[in-house]
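Final report, closing paragraph on structural work. Over the funding period we assembled a curated collection of sequence-structure pairs, and we close with a single example.
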Amino acid sequence: MNYISLDLEFNSAFDFQTGRQAPPNPNCHHEIIQIGAVKFDEKHKFEDTFNAYIKPRIYPRINPFIAEVIKMKTEDFKNAGSFSDNYREFKKFSGDGDITFIVWGGSDIPILYENIVCYRLIDHPLILRYIDIQPYISRLLGEEHGKQISLKKAIETLGIETDLHCHNALYDAYYTAKIFIKTLKDCDYRTKIFCSNHYKNMKIQ
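Its predicted structure, as stored:
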């Protein structure tokens, strides 16, 4: 079995005239602007990485609140490729084998599917195995019930070296993989199934 730690950065609607958040495009609330992934095997050996920046089309300008978090501006994406091309490359990277995706938070996979549908890249139901490790780590580290610990706080609490900044999809995927591997003996991780046929019943945070 192979694992792929997956993380996404995405853009959202913003009214630059009023300086306020704007209603989202009903076909795509969160437009992916970076896909980061780290592949590792069942012996926890890192095998490969994937990193792609995507030129925004649905929301062509980067929401200033998001720009502040990811430390990138609209101009930084002017030479980036399309979502369609980068998603096809990501599928090649993922392969057709026995894959379990490791994610930090339950929204990344539904958002990935939302973008796949928006760009008409799906011709059959999407079914993925995944483990969302955030709630497990929140409990492990004593976070108050109902609250989720941040990735940065989890890294620091677990004593993982932080030489890469957070809110970059590739770096966050790397940290998520490191946390998963480090806590395997402490957390009873359970695999879930994402099936696009049930997508409408899933809430994206």
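The first strand starts at residue 2 and ends at 11. Residues 2-201 form a domain with the Nucleotidyltransferase; domain 5 fold (CATH 3.30.420.10). We thank the funder for supporting this effort.
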